[in-house]
Design goal:
Keywords: GTP-binding, Nucleotide-binding. By secondary structure, this protein is α/β, with parallel strands linked by helices. It has four helices and six strands, in the order βαβββαβαβα. It has one domain: P-loop containing nucleotide triphosphate hydrolases (Rossmann fold, 3-Layer(aba) Sandwich), CATH 3.40.50.300.
Length: about 160
């Protein structure tokens, strides 16, 4: 069985931990718990005929007080760049983080996960901005850890990209 490390990257409170909980345990909680450092989970998936053991590193969110430890990224085969669609600031932070991650570990597959899609009435991120990123070759998946929308798709799509590399 092949083992791949995936890191969850993004600003503070974008839903990284909730996405992992939904994917690994099929649960969602409205109770917010800030991740301190890194939390590691595992899940086995099947991509085509290939069994894959995913090691999920849920890294604390970056804000003005706490920077992502680039050492947490070592050995990552890919990452999910998580954005909260109700806060445009988190997309700006994600764009900066993507450059930092690429500098730290090189070009590895990643997906921009536009989370909290269940709150579209509070949406701040413009569709034109997303289209510009898609034109640059970015994969963007809209998700909701609360409803489960797009969660499995994001992890499986990234798994396919990592296996193809």
């Amino acid at each position: 069985m092949i083992q791949k490390k995936i890191c969850m990257i993004g600003a503070f409170a974008t839903g990284k931990t909730s996405l992992v909980a939904r994917f690994v345990k099929s649960i969602y909680s409205d109770i917010y718990h800030s991740t301190v450092g890194v939390k590691i989970d595992k899940k086995s998936v099947k991509v085509g005929e290939q069994e894959l053991n995913l090691i999920l590193w849920d890294i604390h969110g970056e804000d003005e007080f706490q920077k992502v430890q680039m050492s947490y990224l070592r050995g990552a085969s890919g990452y999910l760049l998580v954005v909260d669609g109700t806060r445009n600031y988190t997309l700006e932070k994600a764009l900066c983080l993507q450059k930092k991650v690429e500098t730290a570990i090189g070009k590895v597959p990643f997906i921009l996960v536009l989370n909290k899609f269940d709150l579209t009435e509070d949406w701040e991120i413009e569709e034109t901005t997303l289209n510009e990123l898609i034109e640059q070759g970015w994969t963007i998946i809209k998700s909701s850890a609360k409803t489960g929308l797009g969660v499995e798709k994001a992890f499986l799509n990234l798994s396919e990209q990592m296996l193809a590399k």
